[in-house]
Amino acid sequence: GAILVTLQNGIEAPALVAGLFPGHPVIAGSAFIGARIERPGCVVHSAAGLIRIAPWAHADEEHMASVLDLLDQAGVPVERCEDARTMLWHKMLWNCGFNAITALTRRHARDIACFDETARIAREAMLETLRAAVADGARLDEEEVDRQMRITRELGPVKTSMWQDIEQGRKTEIEAMNGQVVVVSREHGLDAPVNAMLTALIHALEAREH
Prior knowledge:
The chain is α/β, with parallel strands linked by helices. It has nine helices and four strands; from the N terminus they run βαββαβααααααα. The chain has a four-stranded mixed beta sheet with strand order 1-2-3-4, with helices on both faces. β1 (4-6), α1 (13-20) and β2 form a beta-alpha-beta unit.
């Protein structure tokens, strides 16, 4: 049967797909890429380009090798991970730290990381995400938060997907990002006030844009 690979943001896609297609091999993926549609037919690739994949359900060595080979032949940088949950939460750290704030301020992630006041908000959102991730079984620590903050200060002018969604009047992924952190935190008896605030503010912005 077909091999199903999820590349959506958030942590729920692999489980949702596995539930919809029982028995099919499901591979969780995480895409690290900065890109935007400049105009019809023109996509600007502004940062990174790495895809990570990890087995989720019914995915054996042959399935993993097939997807790794397909991406490699296409010239797409790809890495294999063994721990899908950690891989997905790893990307959530950055998404929850910067997507909403860039959409609200219309400033690039680098600017947010370099300005003390917004950097503190981003880092606190990431720490809340980290606590939720660890409670959910991910193997991450505060050093990864600091590493991502350092890298972001050195990025080019990355226009996040949520900023682009708001500009285009599209529904954002806020519930799959910061909103999901709030949900998981509550499930484990944790608080996530910064993520809750960012989720509410994006919802207000979505309502205004529509």
